[in-house]
Amino acid sequence: MLALVFAAVGCEHERSAPLADAGDAPPAAYAQVHDIFAKSCAYERCHSGAILGGGLPFAPATDYASVLIGVPACEYERFSRVEPGSPERSWLFIKLTAEVRGHDDPYADYILFDPAPDWNADERGCRDRTDDGTPLFGQRMPLTAPNMLPEAELEAVRAWIEAGARH
Predict the structure, then answer these.
(1) pTM
(2) Which of 12, 13, 61, 115 is the most buried (most CB within 10 A)?
(3) Could you report the per-residue pLDDT of 92-106, keeping only the tens digit for each?
(4) Residues 75, 54, 80, CA angle at the centre, nearest 5°?
């Protein structure tokens, strides 16, 4: 239940964009990544429909690149959801690969992330916090843990970002 409350918190400024014309075929790497997101993220309870976890819309017919590339992350706005050429500064990739809090922690499965010391948690779009006020950075994705993306799919996402996130 708590996870649903946190997942419902979203950024206010994102909108879904329609896919490009069929004549504008996306690069093969983006097509593969798009398919990964469509099968792993575009569910009513996750990033499609009434609940848009982190304000990220992955509805059918959405050009995922338009809601990822260069868009500040809701949980840590100093990083873009996808920073072309930099998986380590792409919030999406962090959310897919980060270490998580242990099962004995009341916030188990939330990712471990150390923000910059001068970062102000009150200025971000998603304001999940622990009971003592410590900022939370959401759970590792996809939320179907422990059924995370296979290594080959994580590598495809990493390679797409590293190659410049062309679409």
Answers:
(1) 0.76
(2) 115
(3) 999 999 999 999 999
(4) 55
